Amino acid sequence: MSSELELAACTPYPLHPGGFNRKAKLPHGLTTAHVHAAMNDFVNFLGFINLQLHTQEIERLETMLMPANFSSIVGEFMSSSIPKHCQTIVKNQHHSGHPDMIPKGRFPNDAVLHADEGVEVKASRYLKRWQGHNPEDTWLMVFVFDSNRPVDAAKRIAPRPFKFVMVVGARLTKEDWLFAGRSETSRRTITASVTKSGYEKMMANWIYKAPDLTQTEVASLQTAPPPSGLE
């Protein structure tokens, strides 16, 4: 694979300032400007890391890690970075607490095991059937992105830069989830998927859309996610 293409792929696509929806309704004092700033933080972070890896002839982060692990990094970064730009929300300090971000000062030590207040953050390579571990009443924000995967080199898929393509979010109820469960012999992760009703709520309240999204990217992103877990 061309080293020039690999080097170019180290720098993520920049965000489009005109792609943010100023009419999007966000909870707990959040604004699209806060989300925009946090997304820029990640773009700069990933570009820096990938360029450093390239100098050591190490593959980019998104092609090194398992897809679900990289998606987790994107989501964790956003839930850590958004509160740096919004003074009314904080990262949930409870280990494995839900949701990921909660109103500042609402809970002791800004930590809670489970609460209905706050924002749960997910990142996904897919435009539909977003997954979580349980059907819950929650305000869900999903960062949809496009990037290479570890299998791409073997499939001779050309290197391409990371790109945020969409951010959506809405208040969901348990009725907006479909619990998948698993058989007694299955080892896959137990998941719940956002249903059509939840999908429509979130798409109606879109926060960011990349205006230059190509038809090829749309087709790739609309592929159903694997049932084995989050990606």
Walkthrough of the structure:
The chain is of the alpha+beta class and 231 residues long. The protein has one domain. Helix content is 30%, strand content 18%. It has six helices and nine strands. The strands form three sheets. The protein has a four-stranded mixed sheet with strand order 3-5-6-9, sandwiched between helices. α2 crosses α4. The longest helix has 24 residues, at 32-55. The protein is globular, with a radius of gyration of 18 Å. It starts with a helix and ends in a 10-residue tail after the last helix.
Care to give the gist of this entry?
By secondary structure, the chain is of the alpha+beta class. 30% of the residues lie in helices and 18% in strands.
- Give the termini separation: 25 Å
Helix content: 25-40%
Determine the mean pLDDT. 89
Characterize the biggest β-sheet. Answer: 4 strands, mixed
Low-confidence regions? none
Order of helices and strands: HHHHEEEEEEEEHEH
Radius of gyration: 18 Å
Judged by helices, strands and strand pairing, the structural class is alpha+beta
Q: Could you state the oligomeric state of the chains shown?
A: single chain
Give the beta-strand count. Answer: 9
Shape: globular
Strand content: 15-25%
What's the helix count? 6
Number of discrete domains: 1
Biggest sheet, spatial arrangement of strands:
3-5-6-9
